[in-house]
Each structure stands twice: as structure tokens, then as C-alpha cells.
Amino acid sequence: MLVLENISLAPEDSQNGKIEILKDINLQLRVGRMYALTGPNGGGKSSLARVIMGLYHPTSGRILLEGEDITGLSATERAHRGFGYAFQNPPKFKGLKVADLLEIASRNSPLPGCQPLRQIGLCPEDYLQRELDGSLSGGEAKRIEIATILAQNPRIRIFDEPEAGIDLWSFGRLIKLIVDSHQPDRISVIISHQEKIMNLVDEIILITEGTVELQGERDHIWPQIKNGTICPCLQSCFQDGENHVDCPR
Predict the structure, then answer these.
(1) What's the pLDDT band for 108 if we cut at 50, 70, 90?
(2) Among 42, 8, 47, which Cα is nearest to 160's?
(3) DSSP bridge pairs for 64
(4) DSSP labels for 46-93?
(5) How far apart are CA 215 and CA 207, in angstroms?
(6) Cα(131)–Cα(230) distance, rounded to whole angstroms?
(7) How far apart are CA 113 and CA 111, in angstroms?
């Protein structure tokens, strides 16, 4: 189990002082479960994922993995413990080839790099010797990022908006691949706004303004989000008898 206790993130800003991004987050992520992390843009979803991965260090609180306090571990140390993170906007590495990245991710295992590339719909012959630089489109870089997670096969997998930059025709296939590759001894977290993803996970966590507003089973939480029963502005939108906003609810 991965436990977050009273996690807050308030980095210093030279002009505005401390900026509170996460506020007293408490979560328990259980092995074998798949979670969707959703909520408004700017609500703190990606920041929370980066705290879990060790890319950001929390201002307060602690993170426990199977009872062990790992709050002070770096992202590299957490990767060695089995954490994997697929960025929303994958970084570019000029001079590093796709084959090299997949070999590093698979910890030099005999697994050929072509397998994860085939899984995400890219021809290995066309991509293994390409560099991870600006010549890759956003969609190509995103797919390679997902292939890297598949090659790594970490205990805790975090996908930050895997649909970003992916064309509509490929979206369903990639999401199915992420779901199908989830294993009973793994924890998977997907940051997304997509209804299709919400319908595939076990639990949904709603993050708004840096706090956990709701967490629970998909069949209980998703109808509330979809129908707007938890929208704090729904009443004010209709208080004058007329709504001028194109509300999806």
C-alpha cells in the first residue's frame, strides 16, 4: 500500500511568498487497484503525482510505501523502488536513442525494445534508432513515453494525461493497453478528464484547489461528477433563471 499522510506543497515564490499548491492531502492507494486522478485544470493533480514520484518534495507530511517512510527519497531512488512516471509532456533528450531509453527502462533485460513499441502502435524498425529530440511529434513522444513504462513494468505506475497529443483513432487502443497491462500486484494511477478512462478504473479521486474533494469507487463517484451534483457553481449558474454558459452537465 502507498499512503500519503497530510501532504502539503507550498513552494516559495520570490514575489508572492509561499504558494499553496497542495493542502493536507491524505490518500491510501492499495495494491491491485487502478485509480483515476481527475479535477479542474490547475487543481494540483500533476503536482500531487510529482510529489509521489519524488520530483517535488512536500513542504509537510510523509509518504509511506508498505509502512516504510520514503518521503526523503529522490526520484531516482524511487524509480529503483519500482515507481514509474509518464509525463504529460515527455522531456526530450538529444543524442539519446529510443532503443537506449527502452534498454535503460527494462534494466538491461533481454526483452527486446521492439515489443513495447509494437504494443503502442509504432514500428520498431522506424523508431528504435531515432533520437528523443525535437524531430518527434508530440504524439510520437507520448507513445514512446508509455512504451518506456511498459518496458520498466514498475510496481507503481503513474500516467499523466496519457491521451494528450494522441489522435482519436489511437486513443482507445492505448488506454486499453494501459488497463490490460495493469497487474494484481501493481498500483496504477491515471491523471485524466476522459470519461472513457473514468469508466475503466476501480476508484476515482477528485482533486480541486489542492485538496481531495472526493475519493471512492468509480460507480459511486463518477455519476456525481458527470451529473454535476458536486459542482460548487451549479446553483449560482441558474439562480437568475437563465444559464449563459455552455455547461456539459
Answers:
(1) low
(2) 47
(3) 3, 69
(4) HHHHHHHHTSS--SEEEEEETTEE-TT--HHHHHHTTEEEE-SSPPPE
(5) 9
(6) 46
(7) 6
Taking the CA atoms of 102, 201, 198 and 21 in sequence, report the sign of the dihedral they define.
Answer: negative
User: Would you say 4 and 56 are in contact if contact means Cβ atoms under 8 Å apart?
Assistant: no
CA-nearest of 74, 95, 96 to 85 is 74
- Residue 224's pLDDT is what? 86
Taking only the tens place, the pLDDT of each residue in 63-82 is 999 999 999 999 999 999 99
For strand 68-69 and strand 60-65, is the pairing parallel, antiparallel, or unpaired?
Answer: antiparallel
Residue among 155, 218, 149, 187 at smallest CA distance from 32: 187
Question: Residue 127 and residue 123: Cα distance in Å, rounded?
Answer: 6
Cell of 108: 538491461
Which of 49, 24, 26, 25 has the alpha carbon at shortest distance from 37?
49
Average confidence (pLDDT) over 24-34: 97
In order of their start, the domains of the chain are: 2-237 (3.40.50.300)
Calpha distance 101→231 (Å, rounded)? 43
DSSP 226: H
Closest CA to 92 of 42, 141, 155: 141
C-alpha cell at 236: 449560482
